[in-house]
Amino acid sequence: MRIALFGDIHANLEALEAVLADAANQDVTAYVCMGDLVGYNADPAACLEKVRAMDCPTVKGNHDEDAAGIHSLESMNPVAAAALEWTRQQLTAEQRQWLSHLRMVRQVSDFTVVHSTLDQPSHWNYVTNRFDAMSNFSYQFTQICFHGHTHVPRIYVKSDRVLEVPAESVVIEDGAKYFINVGSVGQPRDGDWRACYAIYDLDHKLVVVRRVEYDIGKTQEKILAAGLPPMLAERIAEGR
Ligand code: ZN
Questions:
Q1: What's the whole-model pTM score?
Q2: Are 33 and 3 in contact (CB under 8 A)?
Q3: CATH architecture entry for 2-238
Q4: N or C end: fewer C-beta atoms under 10 angstroms in the chain?
Q5: What is the 24 CA–ligand 1 centroid distance (Å)?
């Protein structure tokens, strides 16, 4: 069995469709979503409905929470706040309610999924090095945990100590634990503009991170046409 793990879609429909097509070509039969369906880009409702129709396990991201909520966006950076304000207007009350009901943590098969970290899922901590990863491992009771949030794919392995290995692929070995960031579908920030997600092959105990090209020009046009901050169109081309 092969499962696709994808998240941080951020309302980028072209990237989402390209990832789902690639996963189908890779013989994926099950899907799990890491959250942040909306925010930043121009297709929040379409991306939400596409993921909802898939009826796959989905955890809540901070942008899902902010788009669903009514609290002030004042503490947020101005570009993210402008995009969120716009996003709220694009969603129906019912769609916002669906986002608000997403769970923070889920266990699926033999692994756990969370948007940020297991130690304090609602604090939206960023894991950018192996020391950050250590706090998560203390709360990780399955062998593998998949997450997102930083938009940078990373693989941490805990055996006698915690190490980071290149975020390309990893074999799941007995006696070790794995904390794997599956990168971002709709707004990668590792310098590579291509949509990012991961496939977990349960039979071969193998996780592979994949990159997929998509029609980025179309996504950029939609961002500008929607009146969203132009830097959101620029950054997706740079992968930042
Ligand atoms: Zn995100």
A1: 0.95
A2: no
A3: 4-Layer Sandwich (3.60)
A4: N
A5: 24
